[in-house]
Amino acid sequence: MPKIVGIDLGTTNSLVAIVEDGTPRVVPGRDGSMLVPSVIYFDESGTTFVGNPAKEKMVERPRNTVFSIKRFMGKGIEDVREDLPLLPFQVAPESEHILRLNIFGRDYTPPELSAFILRELKRNAETALGEEIKNAVITVPAYFNDAQRQATKDAGRIAGLDVLRIVNEPTAASLAYGLDKRKQGTIAVYDFGGGTFDISILKLRDGIFEVLSTSGDTHLGGDDIDEILIRLVLKELDQRPDVHQLQAIRRAVNTAKEELSAADRADITVEELHYGRSLTREEFNRLIDPIIERTLGPCRQALQDAGLNAADMDEVVMVGGSTRIPLVRRRVQELFGRVPHTELNPDEVVALGAAVQADILAGSRRDMLLLDVTPLSLGIETMGGVMSKIIPRNSTIPASATEMFTTFIDGQTNVKIHVLQGERELVKDCRSLAQFDLKDIPPMPAGLPRIEVKFLIDADGILSVSAQEQRTNKHQSIEVKPTYGLTDEQVEQMILESFEYAEVDIAARLVIEARNEAETVLNATAKGIADEQYANLSEEERAEIAAASARLREVMRTNDHEVIRQSIERLSNATMHLAELIMNAAISKALKDKRVREIQ
Amino acid sequence: MDYFEVFGLPRQLGIDTLALEKTFHELSRKYHPDYFTTASPSKKTQAVRLTALLNDAYRTLRHPVHRVEYLLSLYGYKPDSSKVSQVLLMEVFEINEQLEGVKGGTASVEEADSLRALIKEKRERFDAELRQASLEWDELLKSAKAEAKLKEQLARLTEILSESSYIRNLERELE
Questions:
Q1: 3-state secondary structure of A255
Q2: Chain A contact residues (CB < 8 Å to B)
Q3: What is the C-alpha separation between B89 and B91, in angstroms, rounded?
Q4: What 3-state class would DSSP assign to A41?
Q5: Which of A20, A221, A561, B14 could join A195 in a cystine, given CB atoms 3.0 to 4.6 angstroms apart?
Q6: d(Cα B156, Cα B166) in Å, to the nearest integer?
């Protein structure tokens, strides 16, 4: 069985983890950091950079540095209208159903942008593990709806990954948490991240992790806290900042927010605007309290749905970067009446759990099993714009429901079914998932066809629909029009386009690596020339070093990594004798020093 | 395969939910799609379908009201809230008016509390009736009584569910 990695595709940071010898560990990136910032920078030549190098460009190049893309997954422009004024992105036209960002004249959907991050994680894992990685488990917020889950799966496909399972983040966290402790009992996982909030109530028993209920808000996280602070700064400025300055403010308030988790006071400094102010933790708490309050409603809802009280929880586990905020911990402690667990690194625990789930899927362990639920009720539109629920929220998945449909007109050959997700009674208050068009129904008098439609929510929490006409036993063909998603053909097209990227990416990377090495070799050569041993080289040797150095300097600014490599090779050969002389001199000096010491 | 067969149970309404949970976990360990990642596509699909059936069955049978509804559906009975007595309809109408007051904020706290208590009392009375009728069904089933008797009992269960659905809706609205 080829290796399966676990990926936490986060709003702020993303991680990839793997289980080796029964223990999950996070795979670091090339720069050694465990967290890959979920930031993508596009340069003019079409090269992309992901992670820390991209994060550095957020202020300098705001228009072409994309962040927090997870908040746009499965969304149309109306869903994010309120956020856009504070974001430096250029939204492309035709963003009604899928938001599209325009970067250097090209439109990108959120799944395509997320794919850049996934490709980076894939590469990191491949470098570290020394083999090609094709299979992954990717986590999503538990409260993600069908479209958001599908968008995540699409992102995986575009990145060249076979997404074997979509796992809910709090559930993944509970896997990592329950791993070494053989826990039994009821636990609440409070997962407050950069962009989303989830609460899940689970029952752990004999290795079965059964989710009893889940609730949350997929648009509530650390980003909202940053926004409050940004608005605070904007109010105190006498000018409207441009996009660079806006990003500088974002960076400054984010730093202050993080400092306030440890300190009682922090400074918000924006040099670009000659702005500075101090913020006390008290003031900060007052500002963010409404945000934290919004997490408590879903907590109460989840408890009620599980038929339990706060006092029934044996443990409360904290996940996500925003749980580092002292006020968050205090409020959670007050609600549940117990000290929440914070000993696991809240940034890493989801990725570790995803790796454990990947290990289960790989067949390595049968002692653990996750039984997760669907966070939202599934329903269909009926007469009068009413939503009729067919699979209630918190049903264990996979789950299914069967409904009978018929025709209203003689000879009718099509029946449309509008599928929705949500808890409200009216269609207009629920989230539209898709229109399913049952086609080629055998022509019959009205009301005679009996079309049995089966709705199946799979273990990823994603819906599929199949239909059969009962009188003819004919399998019914269905055309699916996702309301907020990509069609299969669109995803296929993006996969094709992504190959282009993969090639551009690899070429760009090779050039960068070659340039870095050229830099190193040139520096070493300069040092060698300064060494006294340089005088011992022949005339020809010195000429060749000079020529090879000049050649390398000349070609290292080109984009041809092979030519750069050849020049590096030539200079290395030219300096080989010099290196030997320097080395020998150093050794004999060391020996001499040793002898001197011995005599003394 | 019906939901009772999934759990190897006769079509009785008295179910030990702890034993049901235990069986649910055992069967999950056997059929869950997590254990079929490397299997053939047809086996994978089968695992998803079987587990969906198992989950649907567990969700339905562990709930005392859904369990009765499901049993009735197996015999072609369907509770219908439009077929209830005039007396009950009048009662519901009255409660509904009071509920509007509570929701509109014109009722006092005491009025809201007493309405809640009233609805709860009525719902509990239906629950007791349903329990009794369910017990009777199980007895009839065990003693292998004539079909006419069983049909009579199914009709009785249908009636209780039809009448109680109003109260349940009101209770839900109050939440």
A1: helix
A2: 1, 164-165, 205-206, 208, 210, 357, 360-363, 366, 369-371, 395-401, 456-459
A3: 5
A4: strand
A5: A221
A6: 17
What are the φ and ψ backbone dihedral angles of A568, each rounded to 5 degrees? -60, -45
Residue B122, amino acid: K
Q: What is the pLDDT of residues A272-317, one digit of tens each?
A: 888 999 999 999 999 999 999 999 999 999 999 999 999 999 999 9
CA distance A586 to A592: 10
Q: Is residue B9 packed enough to be buried (19+ CB in 10 Å), middle (13-18) or exposed (0-12)?
A: middle
Residue-wise pLDDT tens digits, A56-79: 888 889 889 999 999 999 999 988
A312, A201 contact by CB (below 8 A):
no
Give the span between the Cα atoms of A316 and B82, in whole angstroms. Answer: 46
Tally of helices (H runs) and strands (E runs) in chain B: 7, 0
**Beta-carbon count within 10 A of B5 CB:** 11
| Residue A20 C-alpha, separation from nearest chain B C-alpha, in angstroms | 19
Catalytic residues of A: 8, 70, 169, 191
DSSP string covering B95-142: HHHHHHHHHHT-S-HHHHHHHHHHHHHHHHHHHHHHHHHHHHHHHHHH
Token duo for residue A554: 């000349």
List Cα–Cα distances, A118 to A9, A10, A109, A123, A170, in angstroms.
Answer: 8, 11, 14, 9, 20
Give CA A208 to chain center in angstroms.
27
Burial class for A435, CB neighbours closer than 10 Å (0-12, 13-18, 19+): middle
Instruction: Note the residue count of chain A.
Output: 600
Q: Which residues of A touch B32 (CB under 8 A)?
A: 369, 371, 459
> How far apart are the C-alpha atoms of A464 and A420, rounded to whole Å?
13
The distance of Cα A197 from the centroid of its chain, to the nearest Å, equals 15
Residue type, A426: L
Structure tokens given for A357? 């789930």
Token pair of A339, please?
């000290």
Phi, psi of A170 (to 5 degrees): -60, -30
Are the beta carbons of B29 and A366 separated by less than 8 Å? yes
Name the region of A216 (left: φ>0; alpha: ψ -120 to 50; beta: rest).
Answer: left
For B47-86, write each residue's pLDDT tens digit: 999 999 999 999 999 998 999 999 999 999 888 777 777 7
**Closest by Cβ to B37, choosing from A361, A371, A398:** A361
Instruction: Give yes or no for a contact between B13 and A194, defined as CB atoms under 8 angstroms apart.
Output: no
- DSSP string covering A167-191, please? EEHHHHHHHHHHHTTT--EEEEEEE
Q: Which amino acid is at A425?
A: E
